[in-house]
Specification:
1 helix; Lipocalin; ten-stranded antiparallel β-barrel; single chain; globular
């Protein structure tokens, strides 16, 4: 009888372990288009205002979503380092280190794109991020709405490193 219980317990633990492994792999695979290191291609990017001279995103799998670390250098030479971990569920998550934005929310559109909303004290940014079919280009189109009602439109093109 004890041998049967031990075997039954072993099979149960194995089943739970395999389920967790497959689930984690499925979540990572569903976010795989977004993962990697992305570097701004300034020549292909467009802005109606000053923008970063350089920007690098490092995006990793984190549970059901992603963890992103961004390093920027502005046109005035100001360096920033920000991070966030967020799921693609439309909920707001904290963004740490960004001078302009304190939160971010993502909603998945399809396997290669999502919409986002970043909010700060005086600026709200709404946009879309699209990964190219070959997985080598990340294009972020955004509209910033400032406290005074002015808007700034940017298209930032990143290349996978």
């Amino acid at each position: 009888m004890t041998q049967i219980r031990k075997m039954s317990r072993f099979v149960s633990v194995l089943a739970v372990g395999l389920t967790l492994a497959f689930t984690s792999t499925a979540f990572a695979a569903s976010n795989s288009a977004f993962l990697g290191t992305w570097k701004l291609n300034l020549a292909k990017s467009k802005s109606s205002a000053a923008q970063s001279l350089s920007s690098t995103y490092v995006v990793e799998a984190a549970g059901e979503g992603i963890k992103s670390t961004q390093d920027n250098v502005s046109d005035k030479g100001v360096k920033t380092h920000s991070t966030y971990t967020a799921n693609f569920d439309g909920k707001t998550y904290p963004r740490v280190g960004s001078g302009r934005f304190s939160s971010i929310a993502f909603t998945r559109v399809n396997a290669n794109s999502y919409t986002f909303v970043s909010k700060g004290k005086t600026t709200t940014r709404n946009g879309t991020t699209v990964i190219s079919a070959d997985g080598k280009t990340r294009t972020e189109t955004a509209i910033d709405k400032n406290a005074d009602g002015t808007t700034v439109t940017t298209t930032s093109v990143y290349e996978k490193q």
